[in-house]
Amino acid sequence: MPTVTVDQILAQALAGEDLSPEAGVALLRARDPEAIEHIRDAADRLRHQQVGDTVTYVINRNINFTNICEQHCSFCAFRRDTGEADSYWLDFAQILEKTTDAVQREATEICMQGGLHPGAKIQGASLPYYLKLIATIKTEFPHLHLHAFSPQEVEFIARQDGLSYADVIGALRDAGVGSLPGTAAEVLDDAVRRIICPEKINTATWLEIVGTAHRLGLCTTSTMLSGHIETPEQQIQHLSLLRSLQQTALERNYPGRITEFIVLPFVGQEAPKPLRHRVGRDQPILADALLLTAVARIFLGRWIPNHQPSWVKLGLAGATMALNWGCNDLGGTLMEEHITTMAGAIGGTCMEVATLQAAIRSLNRPDRQRDTLYGKVR
Ligand code: SF4
């Protein structure tokens, strides 16, 4: 078979064709600086074609209601056991206080996720506890968008209470959850998952839960934890699965879909030692993250139009660079970020709106506040 060049692959992508996994891997394996610049340029052009030049951001607050977790993911510096000195579990009054403060700071979204705490129950059941978390926020602030509970948390609730995923998702939606974070995806490859998150849901279950959310009317985001033990082939398989999931949602006219894709480069500094040593560095390699960002824009094509870098993982300067590698969104203000910061990330724990706007304007691109689902605010 004749060798297909990077430029030929990029020409296919710019013509609107879906790339094969082999073509995606060829892009990720590019090492020639000129070829990498062509990949960056193609991603930037596709971004311009698909969503224009405006860079969006959302005013949101993270609330991680507990760091007590039954699992032991090998990249996680956040989890604690019950009773450990720095374990915490917010009560409902604290959650309401943080939400009230977020609203006063013009947040349109609360992003809420937590550890898998087996003791977080009301009358012996998990779901009522999670419903009370939702009610704590939505009763007081019905218009606030609640972006909450990962596919792993959905599985946890279902397992604790003997419910189906659809039962749990339907109940969360009816109580006021507006969308699900597409976290816990890590790398959608079971060989990788057996090493970095052996207790987590497997690839098929992650896809099943996210697909069920779409079918039941909840949008989700999508993510990849990159830059640890995974290969380019496994990264492309991950992107292929996301692309297929989105195609299914759109072809079947599901009321929900994937709104965005976020690359989350692995931060090893405070991660548990075995994985940190295996990976052999503390901070992400920016060049690798940028190339993956560009290839994700190219490979996901028209199916997933919004791409966001993580300023928490890359720092604001790195995230701003990613806006020239296919991204069109700079994420949220977060107000308090714990999970990656506890892993040793350099990006900080919160961002002021003016800081995000200044970063966007430094590229001479227009900025716009968005809501969680990429609609206009006001
Ligand atoms: S990544 Fe999530 S599920 Fe895994 S140990 Fe950390 S808090 Fe628990």
Report on this model:
By secondary structure, this protein is an alpha/beta fold. The chain has a single domain, classed as Aldolase class I (TIM Barrel, Alpha-Beta Barrel), CATH 3.20.20. The chain is built from 14 helices and 10 strands. Strands 2-3-4-5-6-7-8 form a 7-stranded parallel β-sheet. Strands 9-1-10 form a 3-stranded parallel β-sheet. Helix 2 (21-28) crosses helix 10, helix 6 crosses helix 9 (203-215) and helix 9 (203-215) packs parallel to helix 10 (232-251). The longest helix has 20 residues, at 232-251. It is globular, with a radius of gyration of 20 Å. The model has no long low-confidence stretch (mean pLDDT 96). Iron/sulfur cluster is lined by residues 69, 71-73, 76, 78-79, 115-116, 152, 197.
